[in-house]
Amino acid sequence: MSTQQIADLLKISHTRFHPGCRLFTWHPRGELDDALADAIVGVIESDEHFYDRPFNRYADLSQLTTIKLKIGHVFQIAETRREVSQQVKSAFFADTTVGFGIARMYESLMEGANIQVRAFRERAAAAEWLGAPLDVLEPD
Asked: Among 32-36, 45-49, 72-76, 79-83, which is the least confidently predicted range?
């Protein structure tokens, strides 16, 4: 993926890095499919090598209109991400049954990994768990 493609992806996917609270936020819109999930994982993996200190992550699935992730693909992502040596937190906020179900499945697949994953139905609870101000979790 080129630098321009990554820049375009970050703009479209509504990602932000908040250095003050060491937090990467992602607010995808529209359709979440395997390709977009892989691209975001790629951006996070790049940032993990770039930044000298680990950072937490937050994904807000509330603005998705469609989720077309293959279940097997979620397993593949979890298998790869379980190998990360940094201890970080990754919170998923979902206000739909499907989004929350995917987030809970990923949480279950990541049990015992260095990345602690939690699914939330309330942003305030996610903010508290991440130790971040609620306003940085709000969509644009």
From this structure: 45-49
Closest alpha carbon to 77 in 96, 59, 52, 54: 59
How far, in Å, CA of 30 to CA of 61, rounded? 10
* Domain boundaries, given as residue ranges, for the chain: 3-132
Q: In 34-123, at which residue ranges do the beta strands (DSSP E only) sit? A: 56-60, 64-68, 88-93, 115-120
Give the predicted TM-score (pTM) of the model: 0.88
Q: Which position has the token pair 């298998």? A: 79
Nearest-angstrom CA–CA distance, 131 and 58? 12
Buried b (16+ CB within 10 A) or exposed e, 46-80: eeeeeeeebbbbbbbbbebeebebeeeebeebbee
Q: What is the DSSP letter of 116?
A: E
* Residue that the structure tokens 């206000």 belong to: 95
Which of 38, 30, 107 has its CA nearest to residue 61? 30
Query: 72 or 53: which carries more pLDDT confidence?
Result: 72
CATH code at 3-132 = 3.30.750.24
Q: Which tens digit of pLDDT belongs to each residue from 6-24?
A: 455 555 567 888 889 999 9
